[in-house]
Write a structure and sequence with these properties.
487 residues; 8 strands; two-stranded antiparallel sheet; 54% helix; four-stranded mixed sheet
Length: 487
């Protein structure tokens, strides 16, 4: 049996999509919201010297008028100073009683503040950084008497081991081993830190946190302590009858004790967390004009970009002696032009998507949330002849200002739920569930089964109990047993 080996050269033609850096940048721009896009544009203007903000001719004329006004003011000021130097003016100023003027100026006058009117710092110069939980505790630790140097070191180690909610993230044994001290010594310092403000901070469990606060407030009764130590988990279900039966006390006494326990703070450090509230900048506005809804892009904060004409002229000169300079400028000009085109394409795509959404969800814009229709990405993608992934990128993290409030673009895409009169959007069902719960009796909250019956009776919407529970969880609403309130 013989084996023959040979080498052959064959040409094979294949097709594949290559994502160039420019295409990757265009895709990335679609995903950015307006704030992120503005930050990215500012960064590009720093790194690309040929990129600049286009200046309107009207703005140039305004600046020229302002310069003329400044010159006029300066001339008037010089004339006024000349008049003050005249003998009759100096004689008149001597007769003025200046004492009331100085008394009314107060401490905010420039003479006392140390700044002239033109030299005063901007308003943000006087802003202060909000104190964190760690800062607040360290400040108290330094002011607490009878702490030795060693105990101060232990106290700082404990404070730096506290999480945002105010709980100790490590154990006493780990801290003691790290600091080279006895666990009893660490435990003693921990007990004193737990009495700092906010009381209950540095607790190792919810039970310990509540007990510290009860001792501090003087409500550390035997019944209250027993409920916290033995029946804390049962408080979630609010089954007070069962707690009373196990403790063998009257149910009314249990309710009274629970009212006091509910006044305690389970997360003492949460109040020192930085405010996470952020402003939402709408990308699009939808408003009614002449009986129809109009879509308008929000481009107020977005700078109008242009390529610097001076650098463009240098790059176009064929006889430029320095080829490296010309090649560098040519590359930067192409990058700037691509960025400008990508931003324009982004704006056009957002506009197209929003116009399509308004067409599909016309009842929502005219009548409100209850009239939101089922809509999927494919519907809009087919309407504007784009891919679903493009529509998904456009709707992520971008907001629209409507007559009914500000909504994220992806809010208008909902799955459908069958009802007697046709399909309804899941967002509309969630809104109805939230309204039922908002109107319920706090002492007798609606169960998921009760909400199912109400939806079927009032709106002919037939959904399962588990669907109601799923929507309720997505809305951040507790179960009926946890919503029950003590009156």
């Amino acid at each position: 049996m013989s084996i023959s080996l040979s080498q052959n050269i064959r040409l094979i033609q294949t097709q594949q999509l290559a994502l160039t850096p420019q295409l990757q940048q265009a895709i990335k721009l679609l995903q950015l919201n307006q704030v992120e896009l503005l930050e990215m544009v500012n960064q590009e203007m720093v790194t690309n010297p040929v990129l600049e903000e286009a200046v309107d001719k009207g703005l140039e004329e305004l600046e020229h008028t302002e310069r003329q006004q400044v010159d006029s003011d300066e001339r008037a000021l010089r004339d006024g100073m000349d008049s003050e130097n005249r003998p009759e003016t100096r004689e008149a100023l001597k007769e003025v009683d200046w004492q009331p003027y100085f008394e009314q100026r107060g401490i905010s006058g420039s003479a006392r503040s140390g700044f002239d009117s033109d030299e005063r710092p901007s308003w943000d110069y006087n802003l202060t950084k909000p104190a964190t939980l760690i800062d607040h505790l360290l400040w108290q630790l330094q002011l607490t008497p009878l702490f030795s140097e060693r105990e101060l070191d232990i106290g700082e180690a404990i404070i730096y081991s506290i999480d945002e909610d105010g709980y100790l993230e490590t154990t006493i044994d780990e801290l003691s081993a790290r600091l080279g001290c006895e666990p009893e010594e660490t435990e003693s310092v921990l007990a004193r830190i737990q009495q700092l403000d906010p009381v209950g901070v540095a607790a190792r469990s919810l039970e310990e946190c509540l007990l510290c606060q009860m001792v501090h407030l003087g409500i550390d009764s035997e019944l209250n302590r027993k409920i916290v130590e033995e029946h804390l988990s049962q408080l979630k279900t609010k089954n007070y009858r069962k707690i009373a039966r196990q403790i063998q006390v009257d149910e009314e006494k249990v309710r009274t004790a629970v009212k006091l326990i509910m006044t305690l703070d389970p997360k003492p450090g949460a109040r020192y967390q930085p405010d996470s509230t952020r402003a939402v900048v709408p990308e699009v506005f939808v408003y009614k004009s002449d009986g129809r809804f109009v879509v308008s892009l929000n481009e107020d904060r977005l700078p109008r970009l242009a390529v610097n004409s001076y650098y463009q002229e240098i790059a176009s000169q064929r006889r430029e002696p320095n080829n490296l300079t010309r090649n560098y400028l040519t590359e930067k000009i192409r990058a700037a032009q691509w960025l400008i085109k990508s931003i324009e394409q982004r704006q056009k795509t957002i506009y197209k998507v929003m116009v399509s959404i308004v067409k599909f969800q016309s009842d929502f814009f005219a009548r409100g949330v209850h009239y939101l229709k089922p809509l999927v990405l494919r519907d809009v993608a087919d309407d504007i002849e784009m891919h679903e992934s493009t529509v998904s990128r456009v709707t992520q993290g971008k907001y629209v200002q409507t007559p009914h409030g500000v909504f994220e673009l992806k809010y208008f895409f909902n799955s459908s739920i069958n009802q007697g009169t046709g399909d309804i959007a899941s967002a509309s069902v969630k809104q109805k569930i939230a309204e039922y719960i908002n109107r319920e009796n706090p002492t007798e909250p609606l169960s998921d089964d009760a909400i199912v019956k109400l939806l079927a009776k009032d709106h002919e919407i037939k959904i399962a109990r588990r669907t109601v529970a799923k929507y309720r969880n997505q809305l951040g609403i507790l179960a009926s047993s946890q919503r029950k309130k003590i009156l």
